[in-house]
Specification:
Order of helices and strands: HEEEEEEEE
Number of strands: 8
Strand content: over 45%
Keywords: Hydrolase, Signal
InterPro entries: Lipid-A_deacylase-rel (IPR018550)
Organism: Comamonas sediminis
Distance between the termini: 30 Å
Pfam families: PagL (PF09411)
Mean pLDDT: 86
Largest sheet: 8 strands, antiparallel, barrel
GO molecular function: hydrolase activity
Low-confidence stretches: 15-27
Helix content: under 10%
Number of helices: 1
Length: 187
Amino acid sequence: MQYRPLLSAVGLCALTVWSASAHAQFADKRNTATLYLQAGVAERDARALTIGSTIPMDWKTFWWGHPVTAHWDMSLSAWNSDRMEREGSRTIAVVGLVPTLRFHSKSQYPWFVEAGLGGYVSSKLYESREKRFSTAFNFGTHIGVGYFTGMRRENEWSVRLEHLSNASIKRPNPGENFVQLRYARHF
């Protein structure tokens, strides 16, 4: 019973990827929909495991001769943090939607850099040994660097730095920083 929302989210992501995959803008797979798995750690005592999907936006430009694209990043995460010794650990669900810009290296090179800013909603207030969020809605910003592999660049590997906080909507606002590793499969 407790896995029903997770299975529904995975099914929704798969359906979205399938329906968006026909809109590829490059001959290779670099700007197609993805499904991804991501794992990360916070500064001290929290971990995150994420599944998600990226959906390309119908937007493309060039900066300094390099293609720049945009996509939506939809995610469902489980954050696990250690609380006070007597309280044990706690896991919360976090749902995110983040518009992201991606700066691609020239077409023959498989590197990219990306940045995004979006919103996240958690099932409960995030709490660790040293931090306690005051809102379930938070903003997230990230920067990342990644690399494509595969014959048609259908595999994507990236490292991301992400900061989440409520932008001082309510105090306290300690924020949390994650280092994340992501594998995405393009369709």
